[in-house]
Fold these 2 entries.
Entry 1:
Amino acid sequence: VNPHLVKRNKENRDNTQSKSDKKDALVIADMVKNGYYSFVHVASESFEKLRVLMSNRDVIVKRLVSSINQLNRWVDVVFPELRQVFKDVKGKGAIATLRLFPTPIELRSMQPQDIVAKWKSVMKRQPGLKKAYQLIDLAKRSIGSHQAHDAYKLHLEQLLEEYDLATTQLERVEQEVTNVLQQIPFAKKLLAIKGISEISLAGILGEAGDLSGFAHGNSLLRHAGLHLSEASSGKWKGQIVISKRGRSRLRRFLYLATMCLVMNNPEFKALHANNVKVKKIKKMKSIMKLVGKLARVFVGIAKRNESYSPEKLQPFSALAA
């Protein structure tokens, strides 16, 4: 029984907003009697693994993004000129430089050949002498903080440790996700769709479970909370909106997978162009419409165990031509 519906139905019993354990039990009993409940479908082990792994991945990604943001802040305070040499602070060259030469003080007293030799010890493809000269020149006239270098170096070491740990854990989780997907019969056929990545598919399967158990793609949309909701009364017609009464993580992965398909898949790109240019649908409405198309494609492939057929997704205008 949905807890949200229990809260909504509690006033039907005695027309008051009071709440107690006894009243909750009576409300739940009334709802079960009237059929306002749904059966719990226990997912198989593979889908349960995906759900746990993807939940763990979300936590790791948040930690990784946090460590990258803190590294950017550290560079802004201590050595902001580093970005003139390495545009991306999390790039291999920038990370190697931060490990070997934490502050501009170390760089000022070094020769370019020594810097390149240090880079070679930790990188297969390293920057050349030109960047080494530029790095030394920028370090000599850096406007970064000139105090508490020992404290800043300790802070940087801890940030790099956190960054390394999160990166290693993310690789392990994604490798395990790949192994689990290989155990699901229809996953290989879904991955054959150009634009569908293993991470987005794992997120969808982890939250939705076995797609072959859904009667239709619309059932998957309802499970995700992507079905439409309307509030109207008399002559007044309310705006039709997405209900969002479902699994938020499933909504997110369906949306991200659709965006990747619109950018990389020829069939979905053509459908989106037809919606926007021919049917004059707003871009976001077209994307949400294609989310429904993706749900129907996924459920159809899983139920019938057939391969992806691009010709079935051609827009009517293209078929007529």
Note: Residues 45-181 form a domain with the Helix Hairpins fold (CATH 1.10.287.4070).
Entry 2:
Amino acid sequence: MRISQLSTASGVPIPTIKYYLREGLLPAGEQTSATRAEYGESHVRRLRLIRALLEVGRLPIAAIQQVIAAVDDESLGMHEVLGTAHYAIAPAVEPHPGDEDWRRARVKADDLIADLGWRIHPDAPTRDELAQALLTLDRLGMPASGESLRPYVQTAVDLVEHEIGTIPLRGPREAAVEALVIGTVVRGRILDILRRLAHESASAHLLDDSGE
């Protein structure tokens, strides 16, 4: 297909496609003349992935380039590719190793992960995310123990057992990463919304005598 047809098939404007080509996010098409190139379904898949990373994951171009590089690196297994995407969409957390409270929270996070038997990379940004959340609870006078977090752990395990089955691990890498990003970000929002709805409903049952 020509670039105009690629634009129609992907929903991405031609100037944006040309920008992705210049940035190396989209591989060049097959040159058929000095001014024309042909594109295929692999380019449509790549554009879908870029849109997912940009519009859903809210990633900057530099981070998208890292994810794309992992997708294209055939020496990396799928676990490493998905991990690169996971780490890219993780919120930025600045560690404070000089802060004793921070160090204790990070040890607490690492101990919790170890107790669960989860295989998490030592440098995973999610370790710092968890430490920051635990530190916040501590400073608000609501410290979290392993026991108090057990319902959240079990919910996470149940969700992931379902979600991992929705990722097309045997198909093109772009499709797997796209499904991971959309599933993590959008379904994560749905989970938060459903939780807040459930809170309102539970509150109504317990506290609202109006019958509405």
Note: The first strand starts at residue 30 and ends at 33.
